[in-house]
Amino acid sequence: MIELRKVSHSYGDRAVLRSVSLRLTERRIGVIGANGSGKSTLARLINGLVQPDTGQVRVAGLDPVREPREVRRRVGFVFPDADAQIIMPTVAEDVAAGLPDRTSDTAQRRVTEVLNRYGLGDHADHPAHLLSGGQKQLLALASVLVTEPDILVCDEPTTLLDLRNVTLLRRTLDELDQRVILLTHHLETLRDFDRVLVMDEGRVVFDGAPEAATSYYRELMATPW
Ligand SMILES: Nc1ncnc2c1ncn2[C@@H]1O[C@H](COP(=O)(O)OP(=O)(O)OP(=O)(O)O)[C@@H](O)[C@H]1O
């Protein structure tokens, strides 16, 4: 379980999260909200990339600030900027990088399996930085999923994907045993989710079923500044 207790965070004097309390137990959780409403900051708290100014975060009872390695072993994070997530020269090496014994036959078999699953099988020896934007997003997802985290946090993983790959990603998320927390502006991706949070100005302003949450969000966005 992921728990936030009265968590606040500011960048300088800009308050970005304001006393957010949540218990996240569902298998599929979506987070939506306007640009700058605090979604990425909330996600980054979960694996200790951002620290709360006040309040507490617990992931399976662990404190991401004090036990970042333990937490990051359990929480896979797909960043919005897939380029920043590429750490090795080739596609296959990048996927293998997260595995403890990356040169073993077992690891290599696993890499091939994962690349095939994400439509990157023909690109194994391709320079990772030369993939298309959408392929890089798929690579980022593959590189995280190969490590089999308990929880997957995806920050806008579909922005550059074409329709076929949005469908592939949706199906992939659907089939995963892991808990998924998905931050997205693609509201239809959340249709079958268990729970959707709507964020506005650093607060969770709606928390419920996908249809009700997306209606709430559409109405919120229709209100002029
Ligand atoms: N490292 C940082 N330093 C200073 N300000 C930051 C930093 N990261 C985010 N912010 C600010 O915090 C606010 C919330 O940002 P955050 O990325 O959490 O929003 P978001 O809801 O994910 O937005 P988007 O939908 O545009 O990705 C924004 O105003 C942003 O400019």
Description:
The protein is an alpha/beta fold and 225 residues long. The protein has one domain (2-222): 3-Layer(aba) Sandwich (Rossmann fold), CATH 3.40.50. The chain has helices at residues 39-46, 68-74, 82-85, 91-96, 105-117, 133-145, 163-175, 210-222; strands at 2-11, 14-24, 28-33, 54-59, 75-78, 151-155, 179-183, 195-200, 203-208. The strands form 2 sheets. It has a 6-stranded mixed sheet with strand order 5-6-7-3-8-9, with helices on both faces. Strands 2-1-4 form a 3-stranded antiparallel sheet. A hairpin with a 2-residue loop joins strand 1 (2-11) and strand 2 (14-24). The chain starts with a strand and ends with a helix. The chain binds adenosine-5'-triphosphate (ATP). The site of adenosine-5'-triphosphate (ATP) has 10 residues, from helix 1. Adenosine-5'-triphosphate is lined by residues 11, 16, 33, 35-41. GO terms for molecular function: ATP binding. Residues 2-222 form the ABC transporter domain. Keywords: ATP-binding, Nucleotide-binding, Transport.
Order of helices and strands: EEEHEHEHHHHEHEEEH
Distance between the termini: 36 Å
CATH superfamily assignment? P-loop containing nucleotide triphosphate hydrolases
Secondary structure: number of strands: 9
What percentage of amino acids are in beta strands? 25-35%
Family: Belongs to the ABC transporter superfamily.
Protein name: ABC transporter ATP-binding protein
Pfam families: ABC_tran
Keywords: ATP-binding, Nucleotide-binding, Transport
